[in-house]
TrEMBL record:
Keyword DNA repair found: no
Organism: Spirodela intermedia
Name of the protein: Phosphoglycerate kinase
Record family assignment: Belongs to the phosphoglycerate kinase family.
GO CC annotation terms, alphabetical: cytosol
Length: 633
């Protein structure tokens, strides 16, 4: 015992922390749930060798492609990198996109867009002119590495409607879907959401992944002070997002009409034309929420205003002293001085919403001064993020301007960010396969992480694994269960029993098995799938309890001579799962023991699951099979 890395108290605290985590992620709060949904599978982590010969559909953002020049010295933007990566891996690439350039009808043709993609990629791009059976026949005729561009999706209303039949046509012959159109992440299209239902794997492309990482950075609070500078209007529409930001930031700095709603709620004298109907109570709620958190809501001290009768006449008024007949068009000198002093101390700044007043978008002094402030703090290591193209252009200026080379994070599509900050799930993100959100420290989970590993997929109440762990101390046991409440109960039992060779994780193993198990230091020797629950009310899903993605991950990671144990009280369920394993195992699995049909009469482990005990107690049979991984060499 003296060689054990963890004492009893350390181990109890460790498992207790995991239990608290599982309980926390099972609780959906308004500001945390949306951030957890950003953890998705990516093309970067998809096994490259499995792309060869695979038909891969890629949803593109056409604006990124249209604004790109030919590849030079191997460098390209992330969207082009996605296509090039798939081509180089030997995939058959199907490009899906929409483009609308009504000012120039020539740019609407598929021939023009295909030629443009060919020029920037320096690769041949084929054309498809419709979505009929001929499209599927074309995909069947494609060779490894071919690139096929589908017709302009803007011509098909079925895409906008997320039509089921249209989604099936888009996915005809497709195995893997790659979404690289982050600008549409907040919308539901057949080409971004519907298609994912019919592909065995749906992942984020390199551009999509990069934008997701930037979006997640909004929630990161390691760099402080962290201030969000927010412009624009429509307080009621943005109040939820403002509250979320209030949980992440050390201060909210409001510019524009939003600021007047806060001032009005504080009892300051504000012209009626600047007050939003029904916003005062919600603004006061935000003030109280910020006060409880000890966070500041900062608003301008003064404004430059123009005379309504003579726009050439300008004067400066304090925030609560704007006279009738005058309209705020820019920040005043005191406001700019205070903004500067606040931001100069920041380590992280987020700018979202228009930084200009609509009445004075050109030549605004405030924007010019803000640009200089951002340049200064950026030079001291402050992380600056700008949301929206309009805000970015107003602050940074033209491509050859003095601020164009500053290392700001830039979110091109403000609508996606606002939806995300409102705590709403992004459909385009939710349609992708989930990823386990953390790296696993196996040494913290198991006493000896080099021992052989047994994984139970859909571990339920954990009785099978707990029994196995008690009987065999020389192996480690891991349960993967989608029901987080069951995981918490199992971890409670682990803590109570003091077991150091068994653990449970709350996850959907279908999409996370590979990322979780691939980092395990020891060998994977056994995977059990017991009594999966078929949905007999949905025939099209009845036999899809075990997906191709999971099967391939299990077979890839299983050690040679490792076993797969299948068991169900429904004969056809076990039979179908066995057939799927043999199909997608591609010759790497063989039946182990059993009678002529491969059935095993008795449980080979001597430990029964809770449901197995229940079925046998009724006098009904269990249908079992054991598969073994063979060495093809």
């Amino acid at each position: 015992m003296e060689n054990h890395q963890y004492g009893v108290q350390d181990w109890s605290r460790l498992v207790g922390d995991v239990i608290m985590y599982s309980r926390r992620i099972n609780t959906k709060d308004s500001d945390g749930d949306a951030f957890s949904l950003l953890q998705v599978q990516t093309l970067r982590n998809f096994p490259r060798e499995k792309l060869a010969g695979e038909v891969v559909a890629v949803r593109l953002d056409s604006t990124l492609i249209h604004n790109t020049s030919p590849l030079n010295d191997g460098s390209a933007n992330k969207a082009l990198h996605t296509i090039k990566y798939l081509h180089d891996a030997g995939a058959k690439v199907l490009l899906l996109s929409s483009w609308d350039y009504s000012s120039n009808p020539d740019l609407l043709s598929i021939d023009y867009f295909a030629d443009h993609i060919s020029s920037v990629l320096q690769l041949r791009v084929l054309r498809a002119s419709g979505f009929s059976d001929i499209i599927q026949s074309k995909t069947e005729e494609m060779r490894d590495g071919d690139i096929l561009l589908f017709e302009n999706l803007a011509k098909f209303k079925e895409d906008l409607a997320n039509c089921l039949d249209f989604s099936k046509k888009l996915s005809a012959g497709v195995g893997v879907f790659v979404n690289d159109a982050f600008c549409l992440a907040h919308k539901i299209y057949a080409s971004t959401v519907g298609i994912s239902r019919f592909c065995y794997s749906s992942v984020a492309g390199f551009h999509f992944e990069e934008e997701l990482n930037k979006l997640a950075s909004i929630a990161e609070t390691t760099e402080r002070p962290y201030i969000a500078v927010i412009g624009g209007k429509n307080f009621l529409e943005k109040r939820t997002a403002l509250r979320v930001l209030a949980t992440k930031c050390d201060g909210l700095m409001l510019i524009g009409k939003l600021s007047f709603q806060i001032m009005h709620a504080l009892g300051m004298s504000i012209p009626m034309n600047l007050i939003e109907d029904g916003a005062v109570d919600k603004a006061f709620d935000l003030i109280q929420f910020a006060k409880k958190r000890g966070m500041d809501i900062i608003f301008p001290d003064d404004f430059r205003c123009v005379n309504d009768e003579d726009p050439e006449v300008m004067d400066v008024f304090s925030s609560d002293g704007i006279q009738p007949g005058w309209t705020p068009v820019d920040l005043g000198p005191v406001s700019l001085q205070n903004i500067s002093s606040r931001l100069l101390n920041c380590k992280k700044v987020l700018l979202i919403g228009p930084m200009t007043f609509k009445a004075c978008e050109e030549g605004a002094v405030g924007v010019s001064m803000l640009s200089k402030i951002l340049e200064k703090i950026s030079g001291t290591g402050c992380e600056v993020s700008v949301v929206g193209n309009a805000s970015y252009k107003s602050l940074v200026g033209p491509g050859d301007g003095p601020y164009s080379s500053l290392p700001y994070k830039h979110f091109e599509n403000a609508s996606v960010v606002w939806e995300f900050l409102k705590g709403r799930a992004l459909p385009g993100v939710a349609a992708l396969d989930r990823a386990f959100p953390f790296e696993i420290d196996w040494e913290s989970i198991f006493y000896d992480p080099t021992q052989p590993l047994v994984v139970d997929v859909g571990s339920g109440n954990g009785l099978f694994l707990l029994g196995m762990a008690r009987r065999c101390q020389t192996s480690n046991f891991l349960g993967l269960e989608i029901n987080r409440r069951l995981v918490v109960r199992c971890l409670d039992e682990v803590l109570h029993c003091g077991l150091k060779n068994v653990h449970f994780l709350p996850t959907n193993a279908t999409s996370t098995f590979r990322s979780i198990i691939s980092s395990y230091p020891g060998k994977l020797v056994l995977v059990s799938i017991q009594c999966p629950n078929p949905d007999f009310n949905k025939p099209e899903h009845r036999w899809k309890m075990v997906q191709r993605m999971l099967i391939e991950a299990i077979v890839d990671l299983l050690a040679t001579d490792g076993k797969v144990f299948l068991q169900s009280d429904v004969e056809e369920v076990t039979r179908r799962i066995k057939e799927d394993f043999l199909l997608h195992g591609r010759g790497r699995l063989a039946l182990e023991g059993g009678d002529g049909g491969g059935w095993i009469r008795e449980n080979p482990f001597g430990v029964r699951s809770d449901w197995e005990k229940h079925v046998l107690a009724r006098g009904n049979p269990m249908y079992r099979m054991l598969l073994r991984k063979v060495d093809l060499n």
